[in-house]
Specification:
By secondary structure, this protein is mainly α. The chain has one domain. It contains 19 helices and two strands. It has a two-stranded antiparallel sheet with strand order 1-2. The longest helix is centred in the C-terminal third of the chain and has 38 residues. The two termini are 32 Å apart. The relative contact order is 0.13.
């Protein structure tokens, strides 16, 4: 009896929905149970990251409105500046997955070293943007007190950015080898360090009259983030650079600079880095434009995006799991197994996102109330609540499509189809977001609601493009590693 994945691509929508039911897709290679074993640790890792971002902004929103208004533009800016290099070094996970699928795990260690060398060079470049920070945030046109906080927060994170890049390289390497649980535990440790430390450094910590930590506000949030980067990087080093990994992967003997492998990693990783950069640049542009409407609108926008992390970051874990499984399947010459993994990933993410959409639409007030401090003026709190309820409905509209979008792009990335997503991000960012926003301002129609409508349109454009490319199936014949017969 044929399985749902053996049916023609023109099967009815009803049959496609039936094929995603747990009864028909639970067991088997790359079925729901298999996907969950890979994706749950990665989802937990991303939830821990989103928990850190959520609590950072929660604490800052209760510290001052200026702090929460500054945290998202500055945080997104450092991620945007780092994003190309993050995507470049993180692509080592796809190399590791395909080498593992091809039965050549020792080559994965050489790929890790090349990504670490790239991390060192990129970290030095990012650190130099310390001197450009005032000019960068002056372009945003935000209020002067917000600009000062944005500059301070950005500078704290820019100098030690090499730690963050090394973290991306090592966590992606382990995830590509299928050791997602290790990545999960390290990220959970990072969250357990970051969250209480952020609270202590933002508000100060006094115990029995003894001041254990000063009140630093947004500076404290930045310092706690840096400390968590350092802690997780050290733990990853201990997990990777040891005798056991030397025995199985030649982790120390593979440390030589490999020119050909470096060229291959840059060739395939650069489009992924550009994709990440263009996606975040579009998001940064949107955040800065919202800031021109006023501090209150910027604060409400940042709060809504902090809540939206509850849906988006877990889906990033699903997308990463799909990339790994597709990479392993492509490495062993099994594109049909990759298709099964993608279909299972879309089904799992759909079940989760239905729950999240209901939460955003039916219970927005309790979520928003978490961010409203007692010292806010009643009129300000009421206006933020009013805006937040409506904006969360915008979030609910595009959240429905997040699973499809991230799974399709994850599959393309895992196979090596990297140039199309990069081009879509560039064109989508220009014509799907920047151009509509500019036209709204030029026509005098710009409001927080019309700008958010443009953002929803942008997400739908990306989703449609990713689904179309995946359906073409060109990714099935691609690979990123050099060809060698399977042992």
């Amino acid at each position: 009896m044929p399985t749902p994945t053996d049916r023609p691509a023109q099967a009815s929508l009803l049959e496609a929905l039936r094929s995603m039911s747990p009864a028909r897709r639970w067991k088997g290679n790359n079925g729901y149970s298999h996907i969950l074993r890979i994706c749950l640790p990665l989802v937990a890792s991303n939830i821990s990251v989103s928990a850190m971002l959520f609590t950072d902004r929660l604490f800052l929103s209760r510290y001052s409105m200026a702090a929460i208004a500054a945290s998202l533009p500055a945080g997104v800016m450092i991620v945007t500046v780092s994003s190309f290099f993050q995507g470049l070094v993180a692509y080592v996970g796809i190399f590791a997955a395909q080498y593992l699928g091809a039965g050549r795990p020792r080559r994965a260690a050489a790929a890790l070293w090349q990504s670490l060398y790239l991390s060192l060079a990129a970290g030095a470049l990012i650190a130099l943007t310390y001197f450009l920070a005032p000019a960068i945030f002056a372009l945003g046109g935000h209020e002067e007190n917000v600009q000062a906080l944005e500059t301070t927060y950005y500078r704290i994170l820019a100098v030690p950015a090499v730690l963050n890049l090394a973290y991306f390289a090592m966590s992606s390497f382990l995830a590509g080898l299928g050791r997602a649980r290790l990545v999960m535990w390290v990220n959970l440790i990072g969250a357990f360090i970051n969250i209480p430390l952020t609270y202590a450094l933002v508000f100060g910590l006094n115990v029995f009259g003894l001041q254990l930590a000063p009140e630093l506000g947004i500076v404290g949030a930045g310092l706690s983030t840096v400390f968590s980067w350092l802690a997780t990087t050290v733990i990853f080093c201990l997990l990777i650079f040891n005798r056991r990994m030397e025995k199985t992967h030649d982790i120390f003997r593979a440390r030589a600079f490999d020119r050909e492998l470096m060229k291959r990693m840059i060739a395939f990783g650069s489009p992924g880095g550009l994709q990440r950069f263009l996606e975040l640049a579009a998001f940064t542009f949107f955040a800065f434009v919202i800031g021109r409407l006023g501090e209150l609108y910027l604060a409400a926008n940042n709060i809504v995006f902090s809540i939206e992390a509850l849906s988006f970051f877990p889906m990033l874990g699903v997308g990463a799991a799909i990339s790994i499984l597709v990479g392993q399947a492509i490495g062993r010459g099994d594109p049909q197994g990759a298709s099964v993994a993608v279909a299972s990933g879309i089904g799992l993410s759909s079940f989760y996102l239905v729950f999240i959409v209901i939460l955003f639409v039916v219970f927005p007030e309790p979520l928003l109330r978490l961010f409203l401090a007692d010292h806010y003026e009643p009129a300000v709190s009421a206006r933020i609540m009013e805006l937040g309820v409506i904006l969360l409905r915008f979030v609910a509209v595009y959240t429905i499509f997040d699973g499809l979008y991230l799974c399709c792009f994850g599959a393309l990335s895992g196979a090596g189809d990297v140039w199309f997503p990069m081009a879509v991000m560039g064109l989508g960012g220009i014509f799907g977001l920047a151009a509509p926003v500019w036209l709204l301002f030029a026509a005098g129609w710009a409001s927080v609601y019309t700008l958010w409508a443009a953002f929803v349109f942008y997400v739908l454009v990306l989703t449609a493009a990713g689904a179309w490319r995946y359906r073409l199936g060109k990714w099935r014949s691609m690979r990123v590693i050099e060809y060698e017969p399977h042992p």
